């Protein structure tokens, strides 16, 4: 079985250089990096991960808990996080909680037993104490939990932008479909910004909230159909996600409601499918890739015992397409 010293000799570099390549730490030229990887492959060298983790006192594994990877938003977010974490030498353990307290608790226990270097939380159903007592660093998405750093887009501004666009388009009866506003999520600020902006213009929107665990298209369609039946005069609608907006397009098509002629529609997130829909969806763009990289960087710094700021709010922009 070849050793790290054998790899160094054949590659014509020091053992320290091989170690830096393995751990993705320190400056190594691309040509040297490629040469070391080529030699490792030729020699069938397999690093001893247990020994490496003991030496570093780090496992180079991260945990990520999300409601469901089947949801395109969380799928794209996970893809960006895994890709960037991998470039830093981390492996990612992905957990689908379905917003179930018991599952989330079991996943947290599993991540603790696997000694992950940190946890990125995109699902939060447990009491604050469950997170605070974790020894591993945590970074959350769209939720403030005690003194835990969090990453979010400027949700309030996103809601304001959506309201202003619908008003500028001449909408007179405006509606909003959003997540459960009783949950303590920063994402609910997009609803606050939207509703407050309309009220400042003496307009009260029709608001329908989804349940705490609504991720199936049939559930979305049921809520949308209910809204359009109860408010047939709605001519502007802000959906708090692009997935909801996509389902609005489907339901409107079945009812013969033309978008944007009869109903102007705005989503949130700017997932890749938003531009592929027919009509393509006007949406509030979250800088998802930048948010993912920031979350990984924060975990990496926390794992290295650095101190980081708690609040990280990234700007949003409006992307106007065919639904308005």
UniProtKB/TrEMBL annotation:
InterPro entries: HTH_LacI, LacI/GalR-like_sensor, Lambda_DNA-bd_dom_sf, Peripla_BP_I. Residues 2-56 form the HTH lacI-type domain. It comes from the Bacteria. Keywords: DNA-binding, Repressor, Transcription, Transcription regulation. This is LacI family transcriptional regulator. It comes from Cohnella kolymensis.
């Amino acid at each position: 079985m070849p050793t790290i010293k054998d790899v160094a000799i054949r590659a014509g570099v020091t053992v320290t250089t091989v170690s830096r390549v393995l751990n993705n730490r320190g400056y190594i030229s691309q040509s040297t990096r490629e040469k070391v990887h080529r030699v490792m492959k030729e020699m069938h060298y397999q690093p001893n991960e247990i020994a490496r983790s003991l030496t570093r006192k780090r496992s180079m594994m991260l945990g990520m808990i999300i409601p469901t990877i089947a949801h395109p938003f969380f799928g794209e977010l996970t893809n960006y996080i895994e890709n960037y974490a991998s470039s830093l030498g981390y492996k990612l353990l992905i957990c689908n909680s379905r917003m179930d307290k018991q599952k989330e608790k079991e996943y947290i226990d599993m991540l603790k037993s696997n000694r992950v270097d940190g946890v990125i939380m995109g699902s939060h159903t447990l009491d604050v104490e469950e997170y605070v007592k974790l020894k591993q660093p945590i970074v959350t998405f769209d939720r403030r939990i005690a003194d835990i750093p969090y990453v979010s887009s400027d949700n309030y501004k996103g809601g304001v932008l959506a309201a202003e666009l619908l008003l500028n388009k001449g909408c007179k009866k405006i509606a909003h479909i959003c997540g459960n506003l009783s949950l303590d999520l920063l994402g609910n600020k997009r609803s606050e910004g939207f509703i407050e902006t309309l009220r400042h213009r003496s307009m009260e929107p029709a608001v329908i909230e989804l349940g705490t665990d609504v991720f199936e298209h049939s559930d979305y369609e049921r809520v949308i159909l209910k809204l359009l039946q109860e408010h047939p005069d709605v001519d502007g609608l802000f959906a708090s996600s692009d997935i909801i907006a996509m389902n609005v397009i489907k339901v409107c098509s079945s009812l013969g409601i033309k978008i944007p002629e009869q109903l102007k529609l705005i989503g949130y997130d700017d997932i890749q499918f938003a531009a592929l829909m027919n009509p393509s969806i006007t949406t509030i763009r979250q800088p998802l890739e930048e948010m993912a990289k920031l979350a990984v960087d924060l975990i990496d710094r926390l794992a290295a015992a650095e101190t980081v700021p708690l609040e990280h709010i990234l700007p949003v922009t409006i992307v106007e397409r065919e639904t308005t």
